[in-house]
Input
Amino acid sequence: MTATPQRQHYGLTFAVLSIAGISYALLQSLVAPALPVIQHDLHTTTTEVTWVFTSFLLSASVATPIAGRLGDMFGKERTLLFVLGILAAGTLVSALAHSIALLVVGRVIQGTGGAIFPLAFGIIRDEFPPRQVASGIGFMSALLGVGGGAGIVLAGPIVQHLSYHWLFWLPLIPILASAVLTHLFVPESPVKAGGRVNWVGAGLLTSWLVALLLATSQGPTWGWSDPRVIGLYVLSLVLIAVWIVYETNAREPLVDMKMMRLRGVWTTNLAATLLGFGMYSSFITIPQFVEAPANAGYGFHASVTQAGLFLVPSTLGMLAVSPLAGRIAHSVGSRVALMAGALLTMVCFTLLAAAHTERWEIYLASLFLGAGIGLAFAALANLIVEAVPPGQTGVATGMNTIMRTIGGAVGGQVVASIIAASLEASGIPAERGFTLAFAIAAGALFVSFLSALLVPRKPAATDIAPTAEPVAAGSGG
Output
């Protein structure tokens, strides 16, 4: 294209995308350790305050593939700018909120920011030199885990020295900055898929995601045998079946079922689900374990701030290994990086289940967790990008992000229920509850490793054709 020489240097584009990605990732996890503080300050119940986290999860799951598809069709830079604007508005609403209802509304709006990552992957695929694409996607993908870990670490000092409002005021600054920088420095997509959004498919996708995640998130509160929980799970299964049939027969599906059936896609999505199970389990189990009071017979009586420090090695591990994922992809393939990441994460939970009486054991396990998640998350995005045509990058990586979210929601609630079921007369969970939770997470990561073995060694995008012919786009930005 004649416009190619005028495009921004890919390094500048990546810097802008990184600011946007880390801002969203922080918002994803910052509130989790602060929920008790928010509950107290807003004079609400435990059930109601959990919606501060659950509403964000639901909104992100729904918005991510839809915005990814819009980016494939109308331009990734334009869609990213729109998403950042919505994310900024939701963050402002949350920062100003003085009631639980308004805070939940703000979090629903914020969840739209989940589309930042699939859009960023598509931009990297468009803008980076071919040999730099794997490294760029790998590092960008790892930011989701880095930001998640950093949010857990930073939440304690923020609410201790400021207030829960600053959990939103502080991220709002880089969000606004990234929006301005995106407009100025991120070029528009050189390839667009064309077509239109299938809103019926989007509605069905939204319906089964809401039913599934609502049942999973409310299971511990309502009870897993509650008719509402069972009914929502049954409803989600029915809606999934209807959605698959509809998308299979649609002229312009939101999510191409032919693409989803590719071996390189479904195996990677299965591995992503189980890796999400492990990462979110760590956010629940490790802080609760180290915060156990002195009379529990385990743990380290840590404050919220001190508990976050136990996850610092995890964040450092992700930052250290993320650049290596691209090199591994070039030398032996992203499949190997995914296998290694799943094994390292499994080692983390195996160590926690077997040895957790000394602080250094928790720190070591946290380091394994970060290294494993960093490698695996980088590999997931690369494997999806390698397996689909450029015109389907956004929706394909969006669906992969959803699978991680679903796995995370299930993992978090499963381990929380196991720990809650082990409560003793004192109201403190028994050590065996944590040990079992760690062991189950390790088992999930072992299955993730087995899933990685099924990923094709050399996934090819030529297995399917794009749903629409690419159209040239200008280089605006």
